Amino acid sequence: MEQSPKNWSIEDAANIYGIRGWGAGYFDLSPKGEVVIRAQGGGHSVSVMDVLSGMRARGIETPVLLRIANLLDSQLTSLNESFRKAIANLSYRGIYQGVFPIKVNQQAQVIEEIARFGARFNHGLEAGSKAELIIALAMIQSTESLIVCNGYKDEEFINLGLHAVKLGYKCFFVIETPSEFDLILKQSAALGVRPLLGIRLKLSTRASGHWQDSGGDYSLFGLSTSQMIDVVDRIKREGMLDCLQLLHYHLGSQIPNIRDIRAAVRETTRFYAEMVKEGARMGYIDLGGGLAVDYDGSQTNFEHSKNYTLDEYCTDVIEVVMEILDEESLAHPTIITESGRALLAYSSILIFDVLDANLFEAGPIPEALPPESPELLRNLWLTRESITKRNIQECYNDAMYYREECREQFKHGDVTLRQRALAENLFIDIIRRVMALIERERIILPELEDLRDLLYDIYYGNFSVFQSLPDSWAINQIFPLMPLHRHLEEPDRRAIFADITCDSDGKIDKFVDLHQDVGKSLPVHSLRNDEEYYIGVFLVGAYQETLGDLHNLLGDTNVVSIHINEDGSFDFVREMEGDSIWDVLSYVEYEPKNLIARFRSNAERAVKESRITAAERRAMLADFEASIKGYTYFER
Known about the structure:
This protein is an alpha/beta fold. 40% of the residues lie in helices and 16% in strands. Helix 14 (392-411) runs antiparallel to helix 15 (417-441) and helix 20 runs antiparallel to helix 21 (614-628). The longest helix has 25 residues, at 417-441. The mean pLDDT is 93.
């Protein structure tokens, strides 16, 4: 394997990609220069390249979503143990019980693992629809685990939850709108079941970050203070205050600042205390989601990060609840959180191969300018030949000006196509010479700080942003992304990544970069003709599978799940084929058999018209049928 000069090291690679920041101990680099997974944040490690080798041996192609069951188990355990530790340290007199919001990832394998790993903690599920409630009722085994029902509820939804209560499950209906109580009351009376009720608040507290509108007076869900009083009074008139046991709020997903979390818990606990005074039985306080993931590893209140640890989060929550309720001499409730992102993000990696690259580099430049060259070209040529440390800013400005003038003159017919091409090549060569001089001489010029952003290549990846990383496109979510190998070599290029959809939005052009908050390109290695180049996108376990769409009819990727053993080996525990073209055509209401029949008729007409032979028709039909049954992504 080719190595870089001695001044490049694995430490340099780890720093440039930030893997030890956002990796949370789960991801690192091996002495071989490969990304490795550590099951419990330490101990034995498994190379992702070894996993890829095992996939290829089994005929599994990229792109592929790699799930690591151990990391989900580890995150779920850490959340529960951190709350248990805070409860013990602070002598809190209640308990913690988490629920996983199914909407974060509804895939059967994921929910099965949540239920299995969470059983020892009585970790439950949150359902926001009838379909999700059906999943919860089938997956939850212990009646000690909680089921929290959020969202709009019709009679069928409520009946399902009431059946669960009758079976002994702790299934709470969270009242989101004033009218919901009437429907719950009606169905409860019809089935002869006393429901378990909760109320969702609209807090005045709002959090920073992308989801700040989830809180505040204009949040979409929950009751205002006056609506809450009205609902409590109606529950009281019906003699059902013993049913009202839970108070809930949701401040938003990915809350980066611990002060916002403390403020919301403080306000909610005040509401909780007042409801106890109103005579409600209470006993549960549901803090919703919001536990953040440090996507960039900066440990700050930046929207893609967080300025607190898991232990700090749990301790702060317990402290605030205790402080307020102890003032009122009230019992400590069971604390619920609906953490989903923090549990699941680490457990999945999207892996894709790079198919090709469009390099930002100068094409052929002659040894001398052609005699008929216009003055603009001569000026660019002179600028290129005169770059020094002293005039570097001037040369850069001149190059920018002359290139734009050349483009304008081309529009008016004063510059030929070949002259414009030469001008573009000269410009690129000037920019690269300027950048090389800045880096070699360590020149600091604030006006040229963004120059590197002009020098990126486009690497074409075998994936779809819209299917596998929809948040990257829709809300500018930054996911850690890096090569999975070749880290003994210093990256010699910078690139953004385009997917294989024919859409200008199908790209990743925002990256983890602690020096400038968000990087506009990523350090990468030059492609080799005889070697695949693999890229991993990390922390994609939450929401991405659920939100993906069929842009360009590119379907679900292959999925592989592994379990890392204590001896450092790993097992392939599940393999799921991605969507075939047949599958995605069916999703959009085509009947694949009819398409085959139509193509067969078209080919037969071509035979009759002597365009093709019968033998060619047979070969074409075979190719057509093989394609329609194949993977939607690029196949080598």
